[in-house]
Amino acid sequence: MESALVYQIALTRIPMIGYGLARELLKHFDGNPEAVFKARQTDLERIPGIGPLRAKAIREFRDFQSVEKEIRLLEKYHIQTCFITDALYPPLLRDCPDAPVLLYYRGQIDCNNKRVLSIVGTRHQTPYGRELCTQLIHDLKSYEPIIVSGLALGIDITAHRAALENGLATIAVLAHGLDRIYPPQHQAIAQQMLEHGGWISEFAPGTQPEREHFPQRNRIIAGMSAGTLIVETGISGGSMITAYLAASYQRVVMALPGRVTDMRSAGCLSLIRNQVAVPITTAEDIAEELGWKQAAKPAPVKSPSLFHEWSPAEQAIVDLFAEKNPRHVEEIYLYSGLSTTEAASVLLQLELQGYLRSIPGKMYEWTG
To answer: Residue 55's domain is classified under what CATH number?
Structure first.
């Protein structure tokens, strides 16, 4: 079995090591989870937040048999994985301090250099909410956004369905393993999404859709996109959690203002009143809030010149972009073979010379 995947999964199973500490460990070991498990106790103890007890838990981890069992399940259900240092990892989610280090997925989840909008709302949608959600997505078609939601009853499934009907990619963030679909009545539309989007989860195959998993997955919905739209919601519940998470990540939160007498609009009105969300009524409002000035048009990809004379450090960076463009800054640090300081200096020089430009999500794109 692929050793890298074994250690990536194992990193998520160490007792007392949460999202933040897992990322701290990766930071100290150049993004290599295998190096975490092979480090000396004294070296681990010196890492901020680890200390003797957690260092011992890392050194004594032996549950690789269950990790290998999980990998067999991944193969059985055609589930793929995406580690936080991978270029495919959703760039805006990577910026969140509590982002999972490992994602499981099926289908196509590439969000690099793309417009992503999360849409959530109550499971008990009104005809008003359903119709307006459907109309907004239809009117956003020319901007070609990826629509992210949670595959739940109500507004979520309306958003996924409207995206597919308008030829837009849509991604479902699930609160369970990808060996199943919940609720089961959404199996057919979930299968359609594999052709025009995909499924994402931080939960290993075999994980049941437990109640506490749903608020946990909401941070991924909020973190993946530049903006989150709340269509309808009561004063409490998952959509409100998602809205406040998006606000905490400094993302744009938008809400549809409904009737003041409708309890399923009470949450939206509260978000607007408390200045957590901006009120929107049209697709143009959404585009303006997110800075979508025109329909998305993919820029032609340029390859680095083979005839320019580069310094050895520059060549190390240039070679990376010859293989893939754009690239995340952490990926450049990891694979260039340069120190972080040297790589950052070269990136700055190439950007000043017009060969590179920085794009949202801590990405760099070759333009020279």
So the answer is: 1.10.150.20
> CATH number of the domain that 351 lies in?
1.10.10.10
Residues 164 and 192: their CA atoms lie apart, in Å, by 8
Question: Looking at the structure, do residues 353 and 244 belong to the same domain, yes or no?
Answer: no
Mean pLDDT of 253-263: 91
Per residue in 39-97, pLDDT tens? Answer: 999 999 999 999 999 999 999 999 999 999 999 999 999 999 999 999 999 999 999 99
Residues 281 and 318 in one domain: no
H helix intervals, the chain:
3-11, 19-28, 33-38, 41-45, 51-59, 64-76, 91-94, 127-139, 155-165, 187-193, 213-224, 238-248, 266-273, 283-290, 312-323, 329-335, 340-352
CA distance 37 to 33: 7
**Residue range(s) defining the domain that contains residue 47:** 3-76
Q: How confident is the model at residue 306 (pLDDT cuts 50, 70, 90)?
A: very low
With a threshold of 0.70, does the pTM exceed it? Answer: yes
Query: Alpha-carbon dihedral of residues 360, 257, 275, 137, nearest 10 degrees?
Result: 0
Count CB atoms within 10 A of the CB of residue 126: 19
